[in-house]
Design a protein that fits this description.
By secondary structure, this protein is an alpha/beta fold. Helix content is 53%, strand content 13%. The protein is built from nine helices and seven strands. The termini are close together. 37% of the residues are buried. One of its GO terms (biological process) is small molecule metabolic process.
Length: 223
């Protein structure tokens, strides 16, 4: 095995915490005086977020339009159309800061990078994902980055995974894909011939990646 490819959100970085903390910052900055609770605000955002990402998956919007659309729906709902740019940019800045790597990620990447070429393969807006990696100083471990920003060149589509293989110039059997989603990561990677490691609740306990366990699994797969 020559290359290890990592999904980013919920595999290396705590997207759930990042989203929650960033939403709370946006709520306090723009919506706190509208006589609603954060719980209500979060439920409304979650509904619009779900609709927007469904549009992305159908090829209606690219990722940049998707990220903007959810906040347009949110601001329109609360009669705050004039605040769209501020809210959207405020969330983006907060998310890059708040979407922290799990504890244990850095020692895992440091150890694996001694032997393997490491890559990141994730859906999302390239600028945001790269800013997130740089802000938390884990970009240094990776030699290749691929981000799915429009249909069908995004996970879980075969075109996206084929493009990854071509970029890596490596036979799929020499690639290990590590990710948290069976649908977006594991199955399409298997279908193209890669080895896979599914990150689940056994591997992430609280906000800590059990990196020695992951390392042992990697060694089993290559052994």
């Amino acid at each position: 095995m020559k290359v290890i490819v990592f999904d980013l959100d919920e595999t290396l970085c705590n997207h759930t915490r990042g989203e929650q903390d960033s939403l709370r910052e946006v709520f306090k900055a723009y919506f706190y005086n509208r006589d609603l609770s954060f719980k209500e605000f979060k439920e409304v955002f979650s509904k619009f977020n779900k609709v927007s990402w469904e549009n992305f998956e159908k090829g209606i919007h690219d990722v940049e339009a998707t990220l903007r659309h959810r906040f347009k729906l949110l601001c329109d709902f609360y009669g705050m159309e004039q605040n769209l740019e501020e809210v959207s940019m405020g969330y983006k800045s907060a998310y890059i800061k708040n979407c922290v790597p799990y504890e244990g990620v850095e020692p895992l990447l440091s150890k694996l990078s001694e032997t393997f070429l490491l890559a990141v393969c994730s859906n999302g807006m390239e600028q945001i994902q790269m800013d997130k990696l740089r802000y938390h100083k884990i970009d240094q471990y990776f030699s290749c980055f691929q981000f799915g920003s429009y249909y069908p060149f995004c996970k879980p589509h075969q075109d996206f995974f084929q493009s990854l293989v071509e970029d890596l110039s490596t036979d799929p059997k020499d690639i290990l894909f590590i990710g948290d989603s069976l649908t977006n990561d594991i199955m399409p990677a298997k279908n193209i011939g890669m080895k896979t490691l599914h990150i689940n609740k056994e591997h992430i306990v609280g906000e800590v990646l059990q990196w020695n366990l992951v390392l042992n699994k990697v060694e089993e797969l290559i052994g």
